């Protein structure tokens, strides 16, 4: 019998480091997802044009990382689900651990993935503008560049990371719900579709209010509070649900 007793923080640290090594493939998939969305965005996310009777025409294309951010949110949501699977949970039995340490290590991993994914998605937007400037037939202004607007760049990165954390926590909660009872694999999509259809047809104002509450907040501080509170609730719900799972013997 060993007289050495590991603290909770030591166990969490070891599990976290193990997950970083074990889930390197997750970051490869992130790169693939962002590359695909990046290629879709090369033509611009939107464009407007006009012409005159003299034969002069003007076409304006807008380049942003919006599509990359959306694809990355889908990626982190799926990652949050995958990290709750039974095979991943059984890997934690390689350590002297409990469900609390496993959940905290999973949350730390998802937070790390959210930071990397969010920052990379925003940087893709600047890469799009660089490519458009050097290889596209466009006139590009530097008014929104990183060098002239570092504050805007910082806000974009923080906002993207917060979105990733929110969707990671939602995916983690979804995965835990499915692990508690497999019937939710079918019930959750049906329930989600029903709610979307119901709000879209009969309660448009409620749907708009929910959308504006999450996606249309103009204050970064308020958005950070909303996103972090919701994420904390989702993660806390996941921890509570994990205590209802069967114990491996």
UniProtKB/TrEMBL annotation:
<feature type="transmembrane region" description="Helical">
    <location>
        <begin position="20"/>
        <end position="40"/>
    </location>
</feature>
<keyword id="KW-0812">Transmembrane</keyword>
<feature type="transmembrane region" description="Helical">
    <location>
        <begin position="60"/>
        <end position="83"/>
    </location>
</feature>
<keyword id="KW-0472">Membrane</keyword>
<feature type="transmembrane region" description="Helical">
    <location>
        <begin position="153"/>
        <end position="174"/>
    </location>
</feature>
<protein>
    <recommendedName>
        <fullName>ABC transporter permease</fullName>
    </recommendedName>
</protein>
<feature type="transmembrane region" description="Helical">
    <location>
        <begin position="183"/>
        <end position="201"/>
    </location>
</feature>
<keyword id="KW-1133">Transmembrane helix</keyword>
<feature type="transmembrane region" description="Helical">
    <location>
        <begin position="104"/>
        <end position="133"/>
    </location>
</feature>
<feature type="transmembrane region" description="Helical">
    <location>
        <begin position="221"/>
        <end position="241"/>
    </location>
</feature>
């Amino acid at each position: 019998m060993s007289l050495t007793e590991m603290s909770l923080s030591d166990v969490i640290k070891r599990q976290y480091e193990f997950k970083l090594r074990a889930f390197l493939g997750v970051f490869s998939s992130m790169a693939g997802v962002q590359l695909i969305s990046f290629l879709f965005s090369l033509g611009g996310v939107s464009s407007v044009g006009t012409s005159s009777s003299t034969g002069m025409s003007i076409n304006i294309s807008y380049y942003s990382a919006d599509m990359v951010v959306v694809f990355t949110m889908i990626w982190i949501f799926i990652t949050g689900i995958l990290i709750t699977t039974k095979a991943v949970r059984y890997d934690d039995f390689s350590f002297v651990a409990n469900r609390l340490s496993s959940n905290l290590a999973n949350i730390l991993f998802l937070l790390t993935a959210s930071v990397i994914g969010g920052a990379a998605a925003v940087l893709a937007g600047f890469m799009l503008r660089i490519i458009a400037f050097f290889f596209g037939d466009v006139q590009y202004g530097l008014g929104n560049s990183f060098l002239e607007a570092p504050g805007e760049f910082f806000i974009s990165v923080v906002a993207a990371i917060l979105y990733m954390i929110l969707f990671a926590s939602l995916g983690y909660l979804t995965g835990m719900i499915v692990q508690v009872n497999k019937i939710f694999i079918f019930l959750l999509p049906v329930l989600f579709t029903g709610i979307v259809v119901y709000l879209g047809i009969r309660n448009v104002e409620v749907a708009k209010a929910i959308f504006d509450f999450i996606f249309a907040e103009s204050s970064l501080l308020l958005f950070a509070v909303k996103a972090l509170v919701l994420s904390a609730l989702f993660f806390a719900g996941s921890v509570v649900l994990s205590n209802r799972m069967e114990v491996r013997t």
